[in-house]
């Protein structure tokens, strides 16, 4: 349970992949890739989309699309993936200056963005991009309410800023809130979906935006070596995921609530189960490393993600029995 990246392709998904009709993706001749891009563009309410090997490449290319080297600044949460987990890519690849926000729960408001804007003079970096993570990863799978997204979009537009949505777990947010994906992405210039998290495919992500931005994204896909060939083998897995693995994310969310309630009842755990909205449970203990090492001996893996924090993530390879087993493992280790 240390991440929902642990999902493995099911036999039905593998069958769909094995039987996929394929072609050269770089020549737009792979029918699975073409279909996948069309479906994701429509789902996200965008004109066009491009298939990429990973979510990280979606973020990196999007930052490169929006940021011009020369002092452009991105406003985003301090715990967001481009800051903590992309090897400094936005600085190296886009030349981005990053302004991390320290607002609660991995989310911020339009007023927070307003407060972060630079004065437009020659001394200041140029405010250029706002990036949000839906759902929040390291803040515990929180779902940005639609009104809060709209507030951020309004302030960004008022000041001519671009908007990017990291949708690694966007479908978790959609299933949890009942708000359609295209409503959440409204006003954003780029947004993407990851197929390797809860959706259960082995690799692949799709970045969507206007036709002109996606044309330009293809240059960077080429530059990074992300232009592929018979990628339909993997795109077929992603298409299978869209058809079969979206609604079932609700099960992962239910499992996360059961896990959170079970953990919260243990001595030595600090956690408010009412905070759990999707598939991520972050809780506090005195010694996260010792707990994680201890439960591993019971066959349970969670991640120590801070001096007091442990993260557990539910996904399609964790069932109700596994949740009970995990709670019991944590109980035994804490008691010993
Ligand atoms: C996993 C993740 C990414 C990166 O996706 P990869 O497909 O693993 O490269 C980006 N943003 C968030 C919020 C993530 O959780």
Account of the 3D structure:
The modification N6-(pyridoxal phosphate)lysine is found at residue 197. Keywords: Aminotransferase, Lyase, Pyridoxal phosphate, Transferase. InterPro entries: ArAA_b-elim_lyase/Thr_aldolase (IPR001597), Low_specificity_L-TA-like (IPR023603), PyrdxlP-dep_Trfase (IPR015424), PyrdxlP-dep_Trfase_major (IPR015421), PyrdxlP-dep_Trfase_small (IPR015422). It comes from Solirubrobacter ginsenosidimutans. The protein has 336 residues and is an alpha/beta fold. It has two domains: 9-244, Aspartate Aminotransferase, domain 2; 249-335, Aspartate Aminotransferase, domain 1 (Alpha-Beta Complex), CATH 3.90.1150.10. The chain is built from 14 helices and ten strands. Strands 1-7-6-5-4-2-3 form a seven-stranded mixed β-sheet, sandwiched between helices. Helix 1 (11-18) crosses helix 11 (232-244) and helix 12 runs parallel beside helix 14 (320-335). The longest helix is centred in the C-terminal third of the chain and has 16 residues, at 249-264. The two termini are 22 Å apart. The model has no long low-confidence stretch (mean pLDDT 97). The protein binds pyridoxal-5'-phosphate. Pyridoxal-5'-phosphate binds at residues 54-56, 59, 81, 133, 137, 166, 168, 194, 196, 205.
Structure summary:
Keywords: Aminotransferase, Lyase, Pyridoxal phosphate, Transferase. The protein has 336 residues and is α/β, with parallel strands linked by helices.
Structure characteristics:
binds pyridoxal-5'-phosphate; alpha/beta; Aspartate Aminotransferase, domain 1; 2 domains; Aspartate Aminotransferase, domain 2; 336 residues; three-stranded antiparallel β-sheet; 42% helix; seven-stranded mixed β-sheet
């Amino acid at each position: 349970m240390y991440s929902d990246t642990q999902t493995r392709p099911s036999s039905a998904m593998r069958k769909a992949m094995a039987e996929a009709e394929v072609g050269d993706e770089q020549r737009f001749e792979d029918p699975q890739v073409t279909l996948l891009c069309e479906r994701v563009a429509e789902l996200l309410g965008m004109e066009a989309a491009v298939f990429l090997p990973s979510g990280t490449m979606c973020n990196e290319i999007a930052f490169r699309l929006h940021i011009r080297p020369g002092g452009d600044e991105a406003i985003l949460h301090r715990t967001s993936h481009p800051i903590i987990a992309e090897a400094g890519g936005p600085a190296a690849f886009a030349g981005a200056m990053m302004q991390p926000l320290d607002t609660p729960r991995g989310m911020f408001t339009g007023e927070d963005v307003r407060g972060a804007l630079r004065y437009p003079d020659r001394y200041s970096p140029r405010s250029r991009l706002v990036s949000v993570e839906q759902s929040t990863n390291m803040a515990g799978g929180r779902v940005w309410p639609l009104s809060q997204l709209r507030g951020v979009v309004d302030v960004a537009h008022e000041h001519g800023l671009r908007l990017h949505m990291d949708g690694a777990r966007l479908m978790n947010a959609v299933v949890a809130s009942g708000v359609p994906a295209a409503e959440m992405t409204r006003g954003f210039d780029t947004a993407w979906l990851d197929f390797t998290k809860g959706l259960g495919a082995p690799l692949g992500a799709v970045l969507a935006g206007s036709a002109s931005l996606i044309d330009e994204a293809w240059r960077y896909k080429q530059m990074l070596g992300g232009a592929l060939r018979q990628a339909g083998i993997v795109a077929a897995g992603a298409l299978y995921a869209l058809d079969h693995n979206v609604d079932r994310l609700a099960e992962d969310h239910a499992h996360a609530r059961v896990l959170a309630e079970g953990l919260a009842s243990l001595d030595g755990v600090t956690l408010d189960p009412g905070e759990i909205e999707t598939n991520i449970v972050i809780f506090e203990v005195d010694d996260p490393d010792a707990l994680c090492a201890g439960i591993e001996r019971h066959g349970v893996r969670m991640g120590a993600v801070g001096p007091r924090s442990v993260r557990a993530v539910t996904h399609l390879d964790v069932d109700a029995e596994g949740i009970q087993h995990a709670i019991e493992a944590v109980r035994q280790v804490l008691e010993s």
